[in-house]
Design goal:
The protein is mainly α. It folds into two domains: about 30-225 and about 330-355, Orthogonal Bundle (Citrate Synthase, domain 1), CATH 1.10.580; about 225-325, Cytochrome P450-Terp, domain 2 (Cytochrome p450-Terp, domain 2), CATH 1.10.230. About 55% of the residues lie in helices and about 5% in strands. It contains 16 helices and three strands. The protein has a three-stranded antiparallel sheet. Strand 2 and strand 3 form a beta hairpin. The longest helix is centred in the middle third of the chain and has 26 residues, at about 120-145. It is globular. The two termini are about 40 Å apart.
Length: about 375
Amino acid sequence: MADEVKKGLEGVLVAESELSYIDGDAGELVYRGYSIDDLAREASFEEVVYLLWEGHLPDEGELDEFATRMAGERALDETVVETIRELAAADEEPMAALRTAASQLSAFDPDAGADPDDMSVNLPKSRRLTAKLPTALAAFTRLRDGEEPVAPEPDLGHAENFLYMLNGERPNEVLAETFDMALVLHADHGLNASTFSAMVTASTLADLHSAVTSAIGTLSGGLHGGANANVMRTLEEIDESGKDPKEWVDDALAEGRRVPGFGHRVYNVKDPRARILGEKSGELGEAAGDTKWYEMSRDIEEYIMDEKGLAPNVDFYSATTYYQMGIPIDIYTPIFAISRVSGWCAHVLKQYEDNRLIRPRARYVGPKGQEYVPPGER
């Protein structure tokens, strides 16, 4: 058994974690003992970040202090803004721009020279990264659209402030609450690919910025974070085709195409985050007087469940939720990152506390006994 190869490390336990628990058969997600249903509906993103990093929900005083400190760290050094401006002018991909910004932020972090496992500075570094990445993303999005960045507002909450920096106006209460809920839902999710890559990087005693940069690169792939943008592009394609969604799905499957947003490596039932965001997507459609995208999604969900036995994951309904909020499709995955950075940092902090280099092995299946022959004799 010790030599059994587990492709993709599926089912292999490599760590113990207090941060999040997933029951794939029951469709449950828990952060440090708290149900995601309760946290998404009742807690702010700042509360959840505090929970992940500190191990308990903050009282009112702790939350005020934490939120104030986070708000005070949002501004970017002008050199970082200029780099983002150049990336926008070069038509860089949003995730690549965010990855570059995360790496460059280390140059201006006051604790950049500290030992990677110095726990006294890693929490402030985590706070700065989590506070600044939304500013970087909003600035990039506006600059590539021909608009100047909007400075962060310290009196706005984390979610509300991002929408303000993105659009240049304060969002209404419904949009702010919806976006805050989305950030809570994406904050952590066990040892997913990007979290694991952050932990692998941290296990070498590389610094926190390196670990987060690794995670952003991992999240950019279409089999991880990129699926939400693909979902919305698929829905647009269905709408433009004029076909019934079920007919379109039939044709796509017959052509060997994959419908994004379905299936999960852990969940065997509907992703609880998809359930929560699905409800919110429906509410946004009703409020706007146009439920087309929600109804189309529901039709596809029911059909694929009946035909293939596959349930939707979080990407399927985050797509229509963001779309109805007016958020550009190509920044859906970077939005995933500005939430998940809180979970990445939480896991990296734990990795540093009890570090062992993560170094799996591969079974060698190549030739043996080869003899070297000089080039002229080959």
